[in-house]
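The records we work with from here on pair a chain with its fold. These numbers are not coordinates but entries in a learned vocabulary of local backbone shapes. To see the layout at work, look at the sequence and tokens printed below.
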Amino acid sequence: MTQPVKRTPAKKVAPRKAAPKRVAEPGDPAFDWKALYKDGTSLFRFRSKDGFVVCLPSYDDPGEGEVFGLMLLNKSEQDLLIYIMRQHIINRAKDADSLLQTTFLALQRMKAPGVIEELLKAWPEASGKDLGKS
């Protein structure tokens, strides 16, 4: 008479855990800039040639953008220019210090040559005023 074959109980295999989702960082295209600004703030989105993104508050009217853009031509007023840019950003922020730090981190990741100059030209022009023509 043959002996019955004993079978080993099947091992329970734990389901594979999904890899944790990577949280978007400042500069990543998927980063949520709207969460940093007050509700209803219209944002200007700038993508660098190397694929990083920064969002700045849009100018409410072309005149504001034009003044900022024209100031870019006079680099001797750099301190005033930085002050105006900073004020425009923090006036629309939920948490000013956090937003400035986040913006700085995103800008740091942009390594393409001339990217900051492109951003500073495109930002006021997005308000509807072409600064390249009179």
Notes: The chain has a mean pLDDT of 85. Residues 34-125 form one domain. DSSP finds four helices and two strands in the chain.
